[in-house]
Amino acid sequence: IKRALAARASGGGVAPGVEVARLKAMRSLQTRFKKLCEERLGKQWNPSFERWLFSRKQESSGVDPLIPSGERVLRDPGLESELVEAGCMQTTALDISSELGRAAQVAARNVSRQTVSNTKTIKCTKIQSKERLELSAFGVKMEINVEHRDKLQALFNRFGAAAAKTTGPDQAFLRARFSLLCRYNGLQGGGFQGGGFQSAINEEVF
Hints:
The protein is mostly helical. The chain has helices at 2-6, 16-41, 45-59, 77-85, 90-112, 146-159, 161-167, 169-187, and strands at 123-126, 132-137, 140-145. The chain has a 3-stranded antiparallel β-sheet with strand order 1-2-3. The longest helix has 26 residues, at 16-41.
């Protein structure tokens, strides 16, 4: 969080458009995984997806902070074992593992080439009858509790001075907050129904 709010790069060091592109790429990977594995793994496809994502990221030699890439992501022995145990043929399990690895490589490459405008205004509205706020831009909506927003505001006030000089304090904070929420959502694959690993990051983080 401190690095994101430090805003070291030009334009505030935060690129909401690129974060949205990354999030959409992660969601696309999750959708492909579900299509390939749900019939074989049943309701366990989602935690299996998160295991695949984190294990491949550990082996990644690419530069994207979320999407696995590089030669070592082309196969996942762990996923292949899960599929075989679920009744899948070894060759089919290998094909699925390889297809997902190739899809991840393409997704990471596409995000690295993004030239999305970094000047789009982030909109923020209060959700009626709830202590929650909705942030939207580039066709993506994110929600955050007011309490968490206040904690992030305090952090931004301490570390976000450079970004505030570039775009003004209000919009700079919105851009940083929206980007952070996109990145956080992407950590679990871009879905809102995580497989369980995301629960390790509790509210004390905020």
